[in-house]
Amino acid sequence: xxxxxxxxxxxxxxxxxxxxxxxxxxxxxxxxxxxxxxxxxxxxxxxxxxxxxxxxxxxxxxxxxxxxxxxxxxxxxxxxxxxxxxxxxxxxxxxxxxxxxxxxxxxxxxxxxxxxxxxxxxxxxxxxxxxxxxxxxxxxxxxxxxxxxxxxxxxxxxxxxxxxxxxxxxxxxxxxxxxxxxxx
Amino acid sequence: xxxxxxxxxxxxxxxxxxxxxxxxxxxxxxxxxxxxxxxxxxxxxxxxxxxxxxxxxxxxxxxxxxxxxxxxxxxxxxxxxxxxxxxxxxxxxxxxx
Amino acid sequence: xxxxxxxxxxxxxxxxxxxxxxxxxxxxxxxxxxxxxxxxxxxxxxxxxxxxxxxxxxxxxxxxxxxxxxxxxxxxxxxxxxxxxxxxxxxxxxxxxxxxxxxxxxxxxxxxxxxxxxxxxxxxxxxxxxxxxxxxxxxxxxxxxxxxxxxxxxxxxxxxxxxxxxxxxxxxxxxxxxxxxxxxxxxxxxxxxxxxxxxxxxxxxxxxxxxxxxxxxxxxxxxxxxxxxxxxxxxxxxxxxxxxxxxxxxxxxxxxxxxxxxxxxxxxxxxxxxxxxxxxxxxxxxxxxxxxxxxxxxxxxxxxxxxxxxxxxxxxxxxxxxxxxxxxxxxxxxxxxxxxxxxxxxxxxxxxxxxxxxxxxxxxxxxxxxxxxxxxxxxxxxx
Lengths: 184, 97, 383
Description:
The complex is a heterotrimer of chains A (184), B (97) and C (383).
Chain A: E1 2-9, H1 14-27, E2 31-36, E3 46-54, E4 69-72, H2 77-80, E5 92-96, E6 112-116, H3 118-124, H4 136-146, H5 152-162, H6 167-179
Parallel strand pairs in A: 1-4, 4-5, 5-6
Antiparallel strand pairs in A: 1-3, 2-3
Helix pairs in contact in A: 1-4, 1-5, 3-4, 3-6, 4-5, 4-6, 5-6
Chain B: E1 37-41, H1 51-55, E2 61-64, E3 67-70, H2 80-84, E4 90-94
Chain C: E1 2-6, H1 7-17, E2 22-25, H2 32-43, E3 50-53, H3 57-69, E4 74-79, H4 80-85, H5 87-95, E5 101-106, H6 120-123, E6 131-134, H7 138-155, E7 159-164, E8 172-176, H8 180-186, H9 210-242, E9 249-252, E10 259-263, H10 265-280, E11 285-290, E12 292-294, H11 298-304, E13 310-315, H12 325-334, E14 342-346, H13 356-366, E15 377-378
Parallel strand pairs in C: 2-3, 2-4, 4-5, 5-7, 6-7, 10-11, 10-13, 13-14, 14-15
Antiparallel strand pairs in C: 1-8, 6-12, 9-11
C-alpha cells in the first residue's frame, strides 16, 4: 500500500487533484481511497488531502499520519508548516516550484525531492489567471513520471473526464509537466 | 350520502390494517347525531361571504345556489360558523324542540 | 460501470437508481452533497421526481410522509441536529407504516458545536421504529439504499441508511454503479395498498383508544420481525443479481478467534485491518461488524460470538450514565445464552480518529484479564 499526503491551500484544487488521481489509479484496476482533511475549508488556509493505493481492498479508514510520499501544491507552505511531519524515510517529495530540487536539501537527507513548475505550465496553457493559475492538473502530470503506481495515459484520461472546462488544455498541461519534472 | 351507516368495528388482529385508518370514507360516518345545538342561518341577512363555509371543520356546509346550506347529516353543532359569521346571522338553537 | 465517488454521491446514485419519486431535504454539513447532486439530477431530468425545498428537517420528513402516504417512493437525507429535529416525525413515519428511506450521515450532537462523526445522533433514534443499516464503504452505501426500499416496501417500515461523516461521506473510492435495468428488475415500482386515493377516501392516524393502541404496536413489532427475515432473504437475492452480499452482521475471522471485537461503521473497517495485523503476530482476534441495529439480529450475534472467550465492544457513542449503546444491545442478546466476559470501550467521539493502533491499545488493555473491572473504558483520552 502506498500512502500520499497532498499539501495545498484552500481554493487551489488540492482535494480535486487527489480525486482525479484516485480516478486515474482506479482505471488501472487498483484499489484506491482519497479523502480531504476532515473539517472546514477556507480559501488560502493550509489544506491537506490524502490518498491510499493498493492492489487489494483497502480496509483501513483512519487518517494517514505517516505518509510514504508528499506532494506540495503550494511551495509557500514549506516555510509555514512542517510538510515532512511523519514522512517516512525514503519518501519522494514533489514540489510545485520553479526552483531546482537541490535547493530543498534542508527538508532532510532521507527524502528525494522532485520539482515541477506547475504555475508556469498552467499560465502557458491559460488555466486560471496569471495571478491565480489552476495548477492541480499540471501537478498530476508529474506523478506518473516519478511514481510507478499510475500511467500517464490514465492521468490524461482522468483529467479530461473530471475537469469542468478546457479538457484539452488541462491534459496538455499534464503532458508538459510529465516531460519537465526536475530531479528524475 | 350516508349510504353505509354500519358501525366500524374490529374483532380480530387480522382485520386490523397495519396503520390506523378508517375502514371507509368519512362520508359514510354521519356525525350529525353528536349534535345538541344546530346552526340556523338567516339568509335575509347573509352577504354570501363564504366565511362559514371556509371555517366549518367538518366540511358540513354546502354552497348551493349562492347560499350556504348546513348538511345536518354531518354537522356536529360546534358553533364555529356562528362565531365567525361577520353579520352574526347564524344562530345556534337547541336540538329537538 | 465503475466510478470514483464520495460517499454522499453514492447515496444520491442509490436514490436515483431506486427511481425515487419525491425528495424533500434540507442541507446540513456533512450531508450537503447528497442533495446537491440529487437536485442536479432532477433538474437535468435524468430522474423523474419532485424535489421539494423545505425550511427545516421537520418539514422534510413531513413532506416525505405526505408523499409516501400518496404512494410515492420518498427519500431524504440529514445529519445530527437535523435528525434530532425530525424526531417527532420519525415516530409518525414508522407508526403510519410508511416505507420511507433516509440517509443519515453520522455527526456528533452539539454542544459543543461539531461537524465530525460519531453515532449518537442515529442511535438516539433507536426506538422510533426505523430500521437502521450501518455502512462501511461507499459501495455498501449505494447498494443499501436499493435494498432498503425493497425491504421497507415489503414490511411497510422505514429505513435509515447510516454512514460516518467524512470518513465515508467525503471519502472518494471506486464504486460500481449497477445497471439501471437490473435495478428496475430487482426493485419494481411500489404499489402501496393503503395509499391516499380520492376515489376511495379514508382518514389516517386518527384517535385510537387504549382498546386498540397496543394491537397496532404489536403489528409494528411483527413487521420488524418479518424485516429480519426479509433482510436475510434480500442479502441472497441481491448477491444473485449484483454479486455483493450484505447480511445483518459481517463476521471476519470470528470462528477460531479467542477475542472478538464488536464494531460498526468505518471503525469496523479499520478494525478488520487491525485484525489482520494482530493475526500476523499470532494474536487470535476476530471482528464482528454490526450492520443492522434494528431489527436486532439476536440469533446472528449469539451464533457469531458462541466460540469467543472474550468479547470487546467498541462504541463510537455513549449513553451517559450507562454503557455504549451497541454494548447494551449485544450484552442483552448474550444474557442467559453465554457466560463470555464483555468489555466495553468508548472511542472516537466527535470525530476523534479510530486508528488500527486504537484497537492494538484496546487489545493490550484487556490483555490476560479474566473479566472487566469497570463498566466501560475510555480510549485515548487526555489524562
